[in-house]
Design brief:
The protein is low in regular secondary structure. It contains no helices and no strands. Helices cover 0% and strands 0% of the residues. The radius of gyration is 11 Å and the shape is globular.
């Protein structure tokens, strides 16, 4: 689903493993505990999103924007983060 618009959406605990959301807009979305393992999210926009405890293990996040996002306890192990933008993101307790 390229360039989908999910601003302010509520995806808590959602199972989106392997999803294709290139360039999707998740600004201010609530993805607490969402399971995005192996998802393709290149260039996705997560500015101000709440991603505590989300699983991005092995996800492709090249060029994604996470400015001001809240990542407490999120799992980004093995994620491809080249060119990802984390300015102002809160990463306390995140697993990189």
């Amino acid at each position: 689903m390229p360039a989908a618009f999910f601003a302010g959406a509520f995806f808590a605990g959602a199972f989106l493993a392997g999803a294709f959301f290139a360039g999707a807009f998740f600004a201010g979305a609530f993805l607490v505990g969402a399971f995005l393992v192996g998802a393709f999210l290149a260039g996705a926009f997560f500015v101000g999103a709440f991603l505590a405890g989300a699983f991005f293990v092995g996800a492709f996040l090249a060029g994604a924007f996470f400015a001001g996002a809240f990542f407490v306890g999120a799992f980004l192990v093995g994620a491809f983060l080249v060119g990802a933008f984390f300015t102002g993101a809160f990463l306390a307790g995140a697993f990189l």
